[in-house]
Amino acid sequence: MSELRKDPISGRWMITATRKEVDTPIGLITVRKEERERDCPFCEGRELETPPEAFALRKEGSKPDTPGWAVRVIPSKFGVVGLNEELERKGVGDFFFFDTINGYGVHEIVIESPLHITHISKLTLEQIEKVLRVYQVRLNELKKNSLLKYGLIFRNQGYGEEISMLHVHSQIIALPLIPKSIKEELSSAKNYYEEKERCIFCDIIKQELYSHERIVSAGDKFIVLAPFASRFPFETQIFPRKHECDFTNVPAEDLRELAEKLKSTIMKTVKLLKDPPLNFVLHTAPFMVPEAGFWLTIKQDYHWHIEILPHAMLARGFEWGGDFYINPPSPEAAAKFLRDVEGE
Amino acid sequence: MSELRKDPISGRWMITATRKEVDTPIGLITVRKEERERDCPFCEGRELETPPEAFALRKEGSKPDTPGWAVRVIPSKFGVVGLNEELERKGVGDFFFFDTINGYGVHEIVIESPLHITHISKLTLEQIEKVLRVYQVRLNELKKNSLLKYGLIFRNQGYGEEISMLHVHSQIIALPLIPKSIKEELSSAKNYYEEKERCIFCDIIKQELYSHERIVSAGDKFIVLAPFASRFPFETQIFPRKHECDFTNVPAEDLRELAEKLKSTIMKTVKLLKDPPLNFVLHTAPFMVPEAGFWLTIKQDYHWHIEILPHAMLARGFEWGGDFYINPPSPEAAAKFLRDVEGE
Question: Would you call B159 and A279 a contact, using CB atoms and an 8 Å cutoff?
Fold first, then answer.
């Protein structure tokens, strides 16, 4: 099985395999590209070749694990975590020096289309809207398990043709801990609010709308910007204008504009950088907001958003060494370039 | 010129170019491989084709910028920072919302051999020892500028054949700020010491030597281990057994064993992973240790070390999204594999 481990210095968690022999790296599917093209288990009509679905948006009357769905969620066949053991937090080493948690959690695949589409930019707006709705449904379902603290939703596009399924999909990993970068955001937002009685993200949005230099596009409900201190060239973020800590509270009628912003930003990035590997990651509130204690203020001080990270330039020594990034094209130039890409 | 910018949420700094037109990404040299092979300005005899040297280990009597050197340090021709402007810390935006520093600093290239060697594993132990000595000399020189707070020494091996010089070299970037990951280490080490009156790194070393599971090799003065919560498969760290916060205080007679550990670890990694892209980064104390305040205790609570990061698997969505890493082969397995590689 797998194990969650905490680095005692940085506080960063990682997942490793503790089986004796690691034959296939967990979480990665190593199937030859041609095979996957010929024989894609994510396509409609092949439902029985995947683990049974956890959820699907389906035509009324259609049965689970049969055709008739628009978006389908399945447990990852190569999941890095699972629910088949009891959650166990354990110190290991002398005096329990190192902190671990067994590989408790949920790892799901969101199949974003019944058709064999291999690039997110080929999905219709209607379909992306449905995918966003499914994210909300799954997060709401997963948070019923009070042992899980966070659900991270992300998408890898154009990475590892060798190792990953090509059929459009995103992933959800729900864990009994809050990932470090989210913890940092929560803590930073909390400190800012304590000092100023304002949300730091709302202030950033206001600042960016005022100067407009780094705005890629601004809609009625969502804005897209190139962050002031972007780590990667052409990195962008999508923020709701309205203060809200939790993505699952976004009203259904707003998801269409969000789908539009997501699709157009990705398409502009893809066009400008000639289809680079690209991630997007949803940053939303953790599941568990205890009545008292640290997270009490999260509703007022946190603000959900989406990060879109094209890896035009891969992180190298300086980046890994110092968590310090060199990103030559200024975010202002990046925003301008992106604004100027002809939309489709 | 370039600009240092701080992300208001994470506290992470980055460098960007603020020139109107970014033609060549700063810090990256885009020269065709064949040209660089034919015409390498890092080779002995071509000293006049580089900026004048900042320092060189040379034969007695030989003049600067002429042949006769063993290790040569030059300012980077495409430096991301420089000293040609006054240091200026500036808030930008309404109410100085965003924090910036102009691109003040030093960016140097350490040419590690007069010969056209293109892989660190081809350097002799004697030569690597000299390179380590030069790191100490340069850090001691750079810290005389009291505006600089940190000197980050790192090496990219096997990255970007397209964009980087092939002749063996490492880089030093000295900045008027402490990079985030070093700040985190300092702060974490300080908290641990305050609680326990012990250095957290010394405790890790003791723990690892006791269990031996993650030890790759242990010498009289230095040990090499696979960290308990490694971010990347086959990541390793080299620690001095003796508590010391500052690499420049390592006595000359210890550098030979350090060179041996560095070379053998890199060679084992290269052999095992078939010459992967690889970084190493020196983590040492910051330059500025004010008499009072936060860093007062650094001598007792920090412990310098070297991180060696092969990128057998590149970071993807989950990693960037959460600062949370999936690393299937356990560090215990990695250490065992590395121990078992036949040395040379």
Answer: no
pLDDT digits (tens, 9 = 90+) for A240-257: 999 999 999 999 999 999
Q: What pLDDT shows up at residue B294?
A: 56
A315/B315 touch (CB, cutoff 8 Å), yes or no: yes
Q: Are A284 and A182 in contact (CB under 8 A)?
A: no
Nearest to A152 among B8, B15, B321 (CB): B321
Asked if A2-175 and A180-340 have one fold, the answer is: yes
The CATH code for residues A2-175 is: 3.30.428.10
B110 beta partners: B73, B170
Would an 8 Å CB–CB cutoff place A305 in contact with chain B? no
- C-beta separation of A10 from B184 below 8 A: yes
**Chain B residues in contact with A22 (beta carbon < 8 A):** 328-330, 333
**Domain B2-154+167-175: what homologous superfamily?**
HIT-like (3.30.428.10)
pTM of the full predicted structure?
Answer: 0.89
| SS3 state at B17 | strand
- Inter-chain CB proximity A228 and B316 less than 8 Å: no
Query: Distance (Å) from the C-alpha of residue A61 to the closest C-alpha of chain B?
Result: 36
Residues of chain B found within 8 Å of residue A320, distances taken between Cβ atoms: 279, 281, 307, 309
Chain A residue nearest residue B162, CA to CA:
A313
Q: Which of B80, B317, B328 sits opposite A16 (nearest CB)?
A: B328
Rounded to two decimals, the ipTM of the complex is: 0.86
For chain B, which ranges sit under pLDDT 50? 20-32, 162, 292
Question: What are the residue ranges spanned by the domains of chain A?
Answer: 2-175, 180-340
pLDDT in tens, A163-208: 567 899 999 999 999 998 899 999 999 999 999 999 999 999 999 9
- Write the CATH number of the domain with boundaries A180-340: 3.30.428.10
Distance CA A200, CA B7 (A): 12
Orientation angle between helical segments B180-196 and B200-211, nearest 10 degrees:
80
Pairwise CB contact (< 8 Å): B317 & A17:
no
